[in-house]
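[09:14] KT: can someone run the structure on this one? pasting the chain below
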Amino acid sequence: MSGSESFEPQIIAFACHHCAYAAADLAGALRLKYPTAVKVMELPCSGRVDTLHILHAFEDGADGVVVAG
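[09:31] RB: done, structure tokens below
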């Protein structure tokens, strides 16, 4: 990797509709900046995240996974 290229990890965030997703939505409404490499997936509840969801995210190229409730 040359000096001009930097590694930007791809992060998948599984976010609860009532808590974490609402916070991410508010951040967008307030025009707060967060990395574009973070992809937020809205769920009815963070308790619905199964181990297979996390494994599939890694299989599809994610460098990290966050489960936020």
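[09:33] KT: thanks! The chain has a mean pLDDT of 90.
[09:34] RB: yep, looked fine to me
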